[in-house]
C-alpha cells in the first residue's frame, strides 16, 4: 500500500495559522486518531487535536476532509488548520510520523500524486509551480492561465487533430483498392496539416515572450569603472543594494535586483567596471560581467560625461555585443556637466540620468518599462513558458513540416511523421513517456505542495 504523506503546506512558522496537509490511504485513520471521527467531506469543523497516545490536547484546529478521488491529489486528503506556533506544528508533525503508514512528504509529492492520478497534466503542474513563484502581476496572470489548463488544452487540441489526420491517411491505405473512396481525402489532410504547421510555427515564434515573462528580462548595467553603474542600480531599486565609492573598481561580484516594472519582471544586474588593466580579483569580476552581458536581453551602457562609448571601450566590451541585443547609452551624472548633444539619428537610444537629482532616473525607468512591455506581449492566447515546451514544439513542427513537404514519399512514411508530431505534443502535456522528465519538473516544488 502507498504511504500516506503529510507536510506543513503553509509558510514558515511562527504564523497566525499553519496548514498541515495529509494525503493517502490512511487519512481516515489519522483523523480518527487525532479527533475521534472522520468529518463530513468538504465541511470545515472546529476540533480539538489530541495526541492519540496520551490524550493530551495539542491544539484546536479547523479540520477539512476531502474524500478521494474528488481531491487535489485524487486520494483522501485532510487539512489541519492549526495555530502556527513552532511547538504546535512540531508536535503535530511528530504525532503524524508515529502513525502507521505515515511519512513526511518529499518536495512536490502532493502535486506528483495529482499528476500520477490524472488530476493535472504537466503544463498545469508547471503553471502551479509558476503561480507559487510569481512575483509580478503579469507573471501571475500567465501562471494562473497555464495552471487552469489553457496551454495544455491548446496542445491536446493540436494533438487530437494530428491523430485524426493520421487516421484519415491510414484509412485511405486500407481502402486504396476500393473504387468508391474519393482519392482526395489525403490531399485534404495534407492541406490541414500545412495549416496546423503554420499555427504551431506562429506559436513557437511567440514562445520567447512567455519564457521571458516567466524568468524576467535580464537588463545588465555595464561600462567603465566609476561610470556610476552601482549608483544607478541603487536609484532604480530605490534602496542601497550595491556599495558605491569614488574608488574605481569598487564592484567586483555580479549583483542583481528584481524589479516589477508595470507588472513585468526585470532582473537588473550590476557588474564590475570594464577596463584592460586590472588586478586578479577585478579581472575575475570583469569576466563575470562579460558573461552576464552575453546573456542579456538589454545592456545599459553607463557613460559619464567624457567617458567612452561602447565602440570606444575596445576589447573588454566588443566580444559581449550581439546582433540581437540592444545596447542603450545611459548618460550618468548629468547634474555635474551639460551633456554632449545627443545622437538624434535614432539608431542608438540615449537617456540622461542623475542619481543626485530628484526624479533623475525617472526617464530611464519609463523607458525600461516600455521596453519590457514590448518584449513581453501578453495577448489572449496562451504562450509556451519553458525551454522544454519550445524543444518539443520544435520536434513537432519539424516532423509536421516533413509530413507536409515531402510529398514524393510513400504515404506510410508521411503518416509516421504525423505520429511523431503528435507524440512530441504529448510529451509536453505528459500524456506519453516523460518518466525521465518528471523528477526534474517536480524537484522545483517546495515541500507541502
Ligand atoms: N554627482 C554625481 N555623482 C555620481 C552620480 N552617480 C555616481 N556618482 C559618483 O560616482 C562615483 C562612482 O559611482 P559608482 O556608482 O560606484 O560607479 P560604478 O560604475 O559602480 O563604479 P565601479 O563599481 O567601481 O565600476 C561615486 O563617487 C558616486 O557617488 C551622479 O548621478 N551624480
Ligand atoms: K566606484
Ligand atoms: Mg560599481
TrEMBL record:
Residues 216-373 form the TrmE-type G domain. GO terms for cellular component: cytoplasm. It is an enzyme of class 3 (hydrolase). (6S)-5-formyl-5,6,7,8-tetrahydrofolate binds at residues 21, 79, 119, 449. Binds 1 potassium ion per subunit. Mg(2+) binds at residues 230, 251. GO terms for biological process: tRNA methylation; tRNA wobble uridine modification. GO terms for molecular function: GTP binding; GTPase activity; metal ion binding. It is found in: Cytoplasm. Its cofactor is K(+). It comes from the Bacteria. Its main location: cytoplasm. Its EC number is 3.6.-.-. InterPro entries: G_TrmE (IPR031168), GTP-bd (IPR006073), GTP-bd_TrmE_N (IPR018948), GTPase_MnmE (IPR004520), MnmE_dom2 (IPR027368), MnmE_helical (IPR025867), P-loop_NTPase (IPR027417), Small_GTP-bd (IPR005225). Pfam families: MMR_HSR1 (PF01926), MnmE_helical (PF12631), TrmE_N (PF10396). Keywords: Cytoplasm, GTP-binding, Hydrolase, Magnesium, Metal-binding, Nucleotide-binding, Potassium, tRNA processing. GTP binds at residues 226-231, 245-251, 270-273. Exhibits a very high intrinsic GTPase hydrolysis rate. Involved in the addition of a carboxymethylaminomethyl (cmnm) group at the wobble position (U34) of certain tRNAs, forming tRNA-cmnm(5)s(2)U34. HAMAP family: GTPase_MnmE. Belongs to the TRAFAC class TrmE-Era-EngA-EngB-Septin-like GTPase superfamily. TrmE GTPase family. This is tRNA modification GTPase MnmE. It comes from Roseibium limicola. The lineage of its organism: Bacteria, Pseudomonadati, Pseudomonadota, Alphaproteobacteria, Hyphomicrobiales. The gene is mnmE.
